[in-house]
Amino acid sequence: MPSTSLPSPSARAVGRLLSDDALQASTVVANNTMNRERGLSGVNSYTRELGFDPLTHLSACATSPSWLDLCSGEGRALREAAARLPASAVLTGVDLVGPLASAPLPPGLELVTASVTGWEAPRAYDLITCVHGLHYLGDQLRMLTRAASWLAPDGLLVAHFDPDSVRWTDGRSASRPVLAALRAAGFAYEPRHHRLTHHGPQPVRLPFRYAGADPGAGPNYTGQPAVASYYTPEHA
Fold this sequence. Notes:
Blueprint: H1 20-23, H2 46-50, H3 54-61, E1 66-70, H4 76-82, E2 90-95, E3 109-113, E4 125-130, H5 140-149, E5 151-160, E6 166-168, H6 175-184, E7 188-190, E8 195-199, E9 208-219, E10 225-233
Parallel strand pairs: 1-2, 1-4, 2-3, 4-5, 6-10
Antiparallel strand pairs: 5-8, 7-8, 9-10
């Protein structure tokens, strides 16, 4: 496991950090525009954001494919996929705000209104996605380890991740040791597209302790307000 350097005692400390429960009440996190209009294909789509067509990927997985979308918003991409996949497919979307529309759900699709940080997957999934959703979570690293454990044997996890959003409690960047630990745990990172991927289920342990989050960190690489997550080295 890669080593982690301790924050310098002389570094400036950050202000009060919020717990995940308090964080979810902030306007930055309770974002009712996240993934509302993003469909399966086209300019504003999951295919564009993920770098591959989820429908093609799922069709090649199994006769009864399964897809879990974390921070799914309106679930438009899931609805479109459900209409084109076998009736035995299982599609699940989880979002803090949940769908604003009340249109009937197609068979095999469930849209859950819940915090992804507390929700537990009822099964393994062939595909797990989190399209720009980690930007609004406090303990991003715990979410990644949990999602990796929910993968089917040949499953794929894809999540957008901003290394600049992970920091030590003195305010310094923790991006290098965090990325090193993620890679050591089997994740791959594409810096150009800010995408983390993981293949197959694996118990993942990362050497960091979550300290809290700041919803006032300002815009990230997407240009939208985002959350900064603060950690200490596990053996500090």
